[in-house]
Write a structure and sequence with these properties.
The protein is of the alpha+beta class. The protein has eight helices and ten strands.
Length: 291
């Protein structure tokens, strides 16, 4: 069972038992999850469901639309080839669970962010291409930039202040035109599951939007650059271009890098000096491509 004293899951687990009509036999906290407490729950003798509890601010404040969106998107994807979890139940207001909650199926596989071989990179690109080819059958919101004006402050750890100032100046201008499509909006290795050597699932659908395909490419590329360096990031972007014929839009690479900066008076998601250096290196690589 959960041992984290900061998260009281008793009401949520009682709700799960009521929804499923089965006794909860075990609970395991899943790794990751900046926004939420993610629980793998054993019912009927085997782990079969996942419960998202939107416990972390500022996402908890917006938990009702976020969990509702994820549930609606997962229901929409049931009849597609995109390997997403299936929504089972929703307590979007947190009335029953104490926090906004979404119950969904557990997909097989594990997160393997260390995968950088060509076949794995091509698999990621192919999965993203399939997501972008999805024609929504429900209304999906327009995308939101995570690089808002309040973040346009040169970070204290930066080694090239002018590089960041130039990026901010670029983003103050109009974005390029693009063909809107269905985007995951948080597509990155920590949200992809692998099993038996292949991709078995893509999770975390709370930010799904209609927007530029390259913003998804950029977000995955930035994450790869932070972990592995910009060469791996570029290999992924090239694989996506190969799979789709899509033209790169480096403006959105810059938008995504700047989006990793924290807003004023808030801690950064990244604190490792090497990862911060790689983030700046990624900016130095993509910004000149906008000229």
């Amino acid at each position: 069972m959960i041992t984290d004293p900061e998260v009281d899951c008793s009401a949520a687990l009682a709700w799960v038992e009521e929804v499923l009509g089965k006794r909860v036999e075990g609970v395991r906290r899943l790794s990751g999850g900046w926004t939420s407490t993610m629980l793998a729950i054993t019912v009927g003798g085997h782990e079969s469901v996942v419960l998202r509890l939107m416990t972390n601010e500022p996402w908890r404040t917006h938990g009702e639309p976020l969990t509702t969106r994820e549930s609606e998107i997962q229901r929409m994807l049931v009849n597609t080839t995109v390997p997403a979890p299936r929504s089972l139940a929703l307590d979007a207001t947190g009335e029953r669970c104490g926090h906004p909650a979404h119950l969904m199926t557990l997909l097989p596989g594990t997160i393997e962010p260390q995968r950088t071989d060509d076949a794995s990179i091509a698999g990621l690109a192919g999965l993203l291409a399939d997501i972008h080819a999805t024609e929504p059958t429900i209304e999906v919101r327009g995308y939101q930039s995570w690089a808002w004006e309040a973040k346009f402050v040169v970070p204290a750890w930066a080694t090239d202040a002018q590089l960041w100032e130039d990026a901010f100046a670029l983003l103050r201008g109009e974005p390029p035109t693009y063909e809107p499509c269905f985007i995951h909006r948080d597509f990155q290795p920590r949200n992809v599951l692998w099993a038996d050597g292949g991709i078995s699932g893509i999770v975390d659908w709370v930010e799904t939007s209609i927007g530029p395909a390259w913003l998804d490419v950029a977000h995955c590329a930035t994450n790869l650059a932070i972990t592995h360096g910009t060469e791996v990031a570029d290999r992924f972007a090239d694989a996506y271009v190969m799979a789709t014929g899509c033209d790169p839009q480096p403006y959105f690479d810059v938008m995504d890098v700047v989006g990793f900066l924290p807003p004023p008076e808030r801690a950064s998601f990244i604190d490792d000096p090497l990862e911060l250096a790689r983030l700046e290196e990624r900016l130095a690589a993509v910004l000149p491509r906008c000229q």
